[in-house]
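Input sequence (183 aa), recorded before submission:
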Amino acid sequence: MHRTIPREPGRKGGHKGRMRTYTSPEEIDAQMKAEKERKKQEEEEGAALNDSQVEEKAAKSDSEDSEEDSSQKRKGVEGLIDIENPNRVAQKTKKVTELELEGPRQLSRREREEIEKQKAKERYMKMHLAGKTDQAKADLARLAIIKKQREDAARKKEEERKAKEAAAAAAAAAKGLHTLCLK
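Predicted structure, token format:
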């Protein structure tokens, strides 16, 4: 069944307004049945293998098994069409014993740059904590200025408090003299 979406006047055809096709439920059922039949045939063929074929398969090496499995398990259209790509390199599986663990591994450029960046950051932080960087010197100077301002403000506050106390004492003394004069 094909359905089309009507276009608006004045619009040119874009990818969103194309004709869309939908699969009918009957077609889906037919595809499912065909797939089930194909699976049944594969199972029957697998069960029909006699003992001699099983022994031959066991005698093959691991690399031959992996190559045979990869040729059987093809995706999409690959299973239907035999295509030999000379540029395609088949990945060979390595055994654990073949891996080279002793040799030093070469770092990639990005890994080297990342390690250098981390080391540079650590060196900077050590120098900053020691007060040797320009930023640390500026911070210490700013802290000294703030400390001095706070000391000056505290001294000024103390002087104002003492002046108020002296003024209050003088006012109390004047009031006491005033009361003595009246008597």
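Checked by second reader. The longest helix spans residues 134-182.
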